[in-house]
């Protein structure tokens, strides 16, 4: 009974720590703050810094998205290699093509998952960039 109560208390403690970490991450994210309070609350120097960060985030998003697209296109190459191996009865090439196909699919899905986890969408980055540019124009 006591061990079970201790495990429940420790689970609640770790859950609360996780929630505090998430709240701290959200509080330190200037782009979430920009969305919630607006660009007018930031100083001009801070807005310029955020503008550079938003441009870098957009470039990084585009670069990672291109890499994911190339890996996704590589899947079709592995499918073609598999059919070539199947047509000419080359078992080793077929096995290699299947492993390449599986690896490419996993890499593409993992890349997309990580991209969405870090940036949510390209639209969010562009929207933040437009908010910052509009505020800098008015100042």
Describe this structure in words.
This protein is an all-alpha fold. The protein has one domain (38-138). Helices cover 90% and strands 0% of the residues. The protein has five helices and no strands. The radius of gyration is 24 Å and the shape is elongated. The chain starts with a helix and ends with a helix.
Mean model confidence by pLDDT:
84
**How does the major sheet shape up?**
none
Instruction: Indicate the structural class.
Output: mainly alpha
What number of structural domains do the residues give? 1
Tell me the Rg in angstroms: 24 Å
Residues in helices, as a percent range: over 70%
Secondary-structure element string: HHHHH
What would the principal axes of the Cα set say about the shape? elongated
Give me the count of strands: 0
- N- to C-terminal distance: 65 Å
Low-confidence region ranges: none
What is the subunit organization of this protein?
A: single chain
Total of helices: 5
Strand content: under 5%
Outline:
This protein is mainly alpha-helical and 139 residues long.
């Amino acid at each position: 009974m006591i061990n079970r109560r201790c495990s429940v208390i420790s689970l609640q403690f770790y859950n609360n720590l996780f929630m505090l970490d998430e709240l701290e991450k959200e509080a330190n994210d200037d782009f979430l703050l920009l969305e919630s309070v607006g660009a007018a609350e930031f100083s001009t120097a801070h807005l310029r810094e955020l503008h550079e960060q938003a441009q870098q985030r957009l470039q990084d998003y585009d670069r990672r998205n291109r890499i994911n697209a190339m890996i996704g296109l590589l899947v079709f190459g592995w499918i073609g290699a598999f059919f070539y191996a199947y047509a000419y009865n080359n078992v080793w090439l077929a096995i290699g093509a299947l492993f390449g196909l599986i690896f490419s699919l996993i890499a593409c899905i993992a890349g997309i998952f990580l991209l969405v986890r870090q940036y949510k969408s390209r639209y969010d980055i562009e929207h933040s960039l437009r908010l910052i540019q509009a505020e800098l124009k008015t100042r």
